[in-house]
Amino acid sequence: MGPLYPLGIISDEINMLIGFFIGIGFGFLLEAAGFTNTRKLAGVFYGYDFVVLKVFFSAGITAAIGLFLMNHYGYIDIQSIFYPKTFWIPTLIGGGIMAFGFLIGGFCPGTSLCAAVTGKIDAMVFVLGIFIGIFFYAFTYEPLWETLRNSGKMGKVNIADWMGISDGLFIFLMTVIAAIMFFAVTLIQKKVTSKRDYQL
Amino acid sequence: MDRSKTYMNSYLAGILIGVFMIAAYYFSGEGLGASGAMKAVVITAVNDINHDYAKEAHFFKARVKDEEKSPAKTWLVFEIIGVIAGAILSAAIYGRLKLQVVKAPHITNKTRLIAALIGGILFGVGSQLGRGCTSGMVMSGMGVLSLSGFIGLVAIFGGGYVIAYFFRKLWI
């Protein structure tokens, strides 16, 4: 029965080691999929490259289906894992700030780190920016952010419960929508890139 | 054909990332994150320089209470060290380990680097306020059907499409 570490089945040291190996897989796949190229990432917003959308949704859906089945058959207890609590106001505003960060800087934290360590100078500057941003946030936390960050508190909310449908139905609908989206973006990308060479 | 321009199939890469995410939840009860590890680095640095400040300031205090354990000794930090190793490994295999500035053809290196710095600062602030970034909150949140992840998804990607037009000169 999982999760193994939270239920005390594996030690702290083994857990950290597993984290390291899982990280290797994650980093390898991000790089192999092309996530260290800022222009491939930004392409999702301009129609010339949808790699972000394809990888993102295939990963999210694979995990959702896998965890749903494992929870159903008793291999993992979803209640015992790290489950993000919902604070809708800061997440919405923070997400909006991150949207600007993405469109201006062309990365997110994970992708910028992978790109920086593989030699992309623009990504090194982006990572520096993230640290400046976190330091700024940390030192202005009490006067500027604390109240906002703790507003809109909803607790641990499952989106299917929130919509009043079953987890299985939600995952099914999400998969169907993603499949339609994958089909549509493939057509869009073909059309956009046929008109002009984006020199990726 | 130039090997450095070949990439793994997007769907295959996504499915495999999903499998690693399941493993992260199964073994450790954690999602795949990035900004959380960077936050741990900042907390550790400030705590090492001035512990008396860190144990009082609200942003730091919860993570520096335990005098014995370094705030850098977290699962996410080890995971992100792995991410760095994995990315280098893949780039080495595909022949993409090269010092360069990646940008749209018509903008200057200076413009690209200034934009990258501003974007990074915004992501640093946004990920702290929003309680996680694109991996730790949105993608890993999707895996466990957390409402928070879907709000983040709409805010980051939906927001991105709304404002994309204004920043098009940076990319196309």
Write a concise synopsis of the structure shown.
Chain A is an all-alpha fold and 200 residues long. Chain A has helices at 12-33, 38-42, 51-72, 88-105, 109-117, 121-139, 141-149, 159-163, 167-195; strands spanning 86-87, 153-155.
Describe the structure in your own words.
The complex is a heterodimer of chains A (200) and B (172). Helices cover 69% and strands 2% of the residues of chain A. Chain A is mostly helical. Chain A folds into two domains: 1-84 and 165-200, no CATH class; 86-155, no CATH class. A two-stranded antiparallel sheet of chain A has the order 1-2. In chain A, helix 5 (109-117) crosses helix 6. In chain A, 50% of the residues are buried. Chain B has 172 residues and is an all-alpha fold. Chain B folds into two domains: 1-99, no CATH class; 102-172, no CATH class. Classes of the chains: A mainly alpha (200), B mainly alpha (172). At the A-B interface, helix 1, helix 2, helix 3, strand 1 and helix 4 of A face helix 1, helix 2, helix 4, helix 5 and helix 6 of B.
